[in-house]
Design goal:
The strands form 5 sheets. Strands 10, 11, 14, 15, 16 and 17 form a 6-stranded antiparallel sheet that branches. The chain has a 5-stranded mixed sheet with strand order 1-3-8-5-6. Strands 18, 19, 20, 21 and 22 form a 5-stranded antiparallel sheet that branches. It is α+β, with helices and mostly antiparallel strands. The chain has 5 helices and 22 strands.
Length: 321
């Protein structure tokens, strides 16, 4: 009897472990990521897709500060909603289950935004299915002062007006991504990322120290700098296959409302201290002299690191220290 009981116990434990492993695999497959690409020359797109149960789809799109983003969801399931999360933020910028399945807002900071489409728990628990159309539009107009990548005759490396190609194609990443930065420096803020095969407009390249940096415009109109060694001339027929890229300014330090300063601070602190945003806690902004300040902290494994994010009275980010 004792032998049979022991055998049954081992079988039960083995079955439980198998079920847990299977559940873990299923959970890992419940989330998928889609990088949004607008049709050539367009400022928006509509995506037809579907989800079932606990599945979530994260749509990633790189945009610039002060552009107007419009997102709407048409769905067959009343429990189907979406969240919009800003780069570096730990909480959703917009929750359609509270505010409705359509929104239009001014983008507070440049970078890659995530639109997560999901089913509410009541529907997910019943393994319901939702067929939907997600529409995304990014307005071409951007307010603020224009800031183009600077270059002079002495440091001009190549550009579309001086014999260089009009467009580059991203190659040689070997499965990695290419950062688009606000300025030609590896320490500059990352605005978005490019993938193997992406085509970008050439705004001109120059040498910085020993590296070649190129100013580019992505197919969503985001403008920034990338490492030139991953750019190769694109020989496609531009009249039929290349996008009519809109040129929009970089706003490296976009003005933000005080209510958004904690989220913006989280992103800046994450970049400065190389800490994942969920580990960072930031408090509400308050006025200190002639500036606003957001206080924050994170556990670094040896203790707690405290920092301050400073903004001027117009809402422009100044520094994190």
């Amino acid at each position: 009897m004792a032998i049979n009981f022991g055998l049954r116990l081992r079988q039960t434990l083995l079955l439980a472990a198998t079920l847990l492993c299977t559940a873990g695999i299923a959970a890992a497959q419940d989330t998928r990521t889609v990088n949004v690409k607008f049709p050539r020359g367009a400022t928006g797109t509509s995506i037809d897709d579907s989800i079932r149960g606990y599945e979530t789809v994260n749509y990633r799109i790189g945009v610039s500060a002060s552009q107007q983003m419009t997102v709407s969801l048409e769905t067959s399931n009343a429990s189907n909603y979406f969240n919009i999360t800003a780069p570096g933020a730990s909480e959703a910028l917009y929750n359609s289950s509270i505010n409705g399945n359509s929104t239009s807002f001014e983008i507070p900071s440049s970078g890659t935004y995530v639109i997560s489409v999901y089913l509410m728990r009541n529907a997910a628990r019943r393994n319901e299915r939702a067929t939907y159309k997600l529409s995304i539009n990014v307005d071409n107009s951007v307010t603020g002062q224009t800031q183009a990548p600077s270059q002079t005759a002495s440091d001009d490396f190549a550009d579309g007006l001086s014999g260089g190609p009009d467009h580059w194609r991203v190659t040689g990443l070997n499965g990695d991504t290419l950062n688009v930065r606000a300025t030609p420096s590896t320490s500059a803020k990352v605005l978005t990322v490019l993938y193997e095969g992406d085509v970008v407009r050439n705004l001109g390249c120059k040498k910085v120290s020993s590296a070649r940096w190129c100013g580019v415009v992505t197919d969503t109109g985001l403008r920034g700098w990338v490492n030139g060694k991953f750019l190769h001339e694109d020989f496609a027929d531009e009249a039929t296959t290349l996008p009519a890229f809109p040129v929009r300014p970089i706003q490296v330090q976009p003005a933000v409302d005080t209510s958004l300063m904690p989220r913006y601070c989280t992103g800046e602190a994450s970049a400065k201290f190389d800490v994942r945003p969920p580990r960072i806690t930031t408090n509400a902004a308050f006025k200190s002299g002639n500036r606003y300040v957001v206080q924050g902290y994170f556990d670094n494994g040896r203790g707690t690191t405290f920092f301050n994010c400073w903004f001027d009275l117009q809402g422009n980010f100044v520094s994190v220290s």
